[in-house]
Design a protein that fits this description.
Layout lengths: L2 H6 L2 H9 L6 H23 L6 H18 L8 H20 L22 H8 L4 H21 L2 H10 L5 H8 L3 H21 L5
Helix pairs in contact: 2-3, 3-4, 3-5, 4-5, 4-6, 5-7, 7-10, 8-9, 8-10, 9-10
C-alpha cells in the first residue's frame, strides 16, 4: 500500500489492516498512525509541563503512550481510536510526571530519543514501551497519578475545569473559546487561572517543588 493510500484511510481502517496477519506493510501503517497523532502528543506534553517534567522528555513518554494505543486499540470496543489514543497519551504523561516526582524512579531526562519524525520504525519504541518500573514503584506512580487527577477536579471551578480539559487536548485558547461559546479573553483567563492553581496545589501537596 502506497503512502498516499495510507493517508486516505481512517484510523480504524488502518488498525484493522494492522491486525490482519497477512498484512505486509505493518511498519508503515504504524508510522502513519504515529505521525497523525504526533502533534497531539507535543501539545499535551507542552501543556502538562506545568505539572512537572521537561517538555522533550514528556514528548517521548507521550509517544510511548501513543504507541501503546496503536498496539492495544480494539475497534469492536466502541470508542473511536482518537479518544482511546488521547486517554493513553494523557495517562502515560501523568504517570511520567508522577514517576519524576519520586526518588525511586529513573529521572525522565535519562531517556534517549527513540522516535524522530517517524523514521526509526517501531522496534526501538516497542523496546522502550515494554520497560517498566517494579511493582512497588508502579504503585507509587499510580497513587500519585490518582492524586493529580483528583487535584485537577478539586482545585478548579467548573469553568476552569472545562477550559483546561479542552486546552490539554491540544486546542488553542481561541478554539476552546469557540467550543464553550465564551470570549477568547475569558477563556484564556480561565486557562491561566487553572495553570496557576494547579502549580500552587502541586507544590503544597509535595508532588513537585
Amino acid at each position: 500500500m502506497k503512502k498516499t493510500d495510507l493517508e486516505k484511510c481512517t484510523d480504524e481502517e488502518l488498525i484493522r489492516r494492522l491486525r490482519d496477519p497477512e498484512e505486509a506493510d505493518k511498519e508503515r501503517i504504524t508510522d502513519e498512525l504515529m505521525l497523525r497523532y504526533k502533534d497531539l502528543v507535543r501539545k499535551q506534553a507542552r501543556h502538562l509541563t506545568i505539572l512537572g517534567g521537561d517538555t522533550d522528555d514528556l514528548i517521548q513518554e507521550g509517544m510511548i503512550g501513543l504507541f501503546n494505543a496503536v498496539r492495544d486499540y480494539r475497534p469492536d470496543k466502541g470508542a473511536k481510536f482518537s479518544t482511546f489514543a488521547y486517554n493513553c497519551i494523557y495517562r502515560r504523561l501523568l504517570t511520567a510526571i508522577a514517576s519524576a516526582s519520586t526518588d525511586k524512579n529513573i529521572p525522565l531526562n535519562t531517556y534517549v530519543s527513540i522516535w524522530e519524525e517517524g523514521k526509526q520504525g517501531e522496534s526501538a519504541l516497542a523496546d522502550m514501551a515494554s520497560e517498566s518500573a517494579g511493582p512497588e514503584d508502579q504503585a507509587v506512580s499510580s497513587e500519585t497519578v490518582a492524586e493529580i487527577e483528583t487535584l485537577i477536579r478539586e482545585e478548579l471551578t467548573e469553568a476552569e475545569y472545562r477550559a483546561f480539559g479542552l486546552w490539554i487536548t491540544g486546542l488553542s485558547a481561541a478554539e476552546v473559546a469557540d467550543i464553550l461559546g465564551k470570549t477568547s479573553k475569558s477563556t484564556d483567563n480561565a486557562i491561566q487561572r487553572a495553570r496557576k492553581k494547579l502549580q500552587r496545589a502541586l507544590v503544597e501537596r509535595g508532588i513537585r517543588k
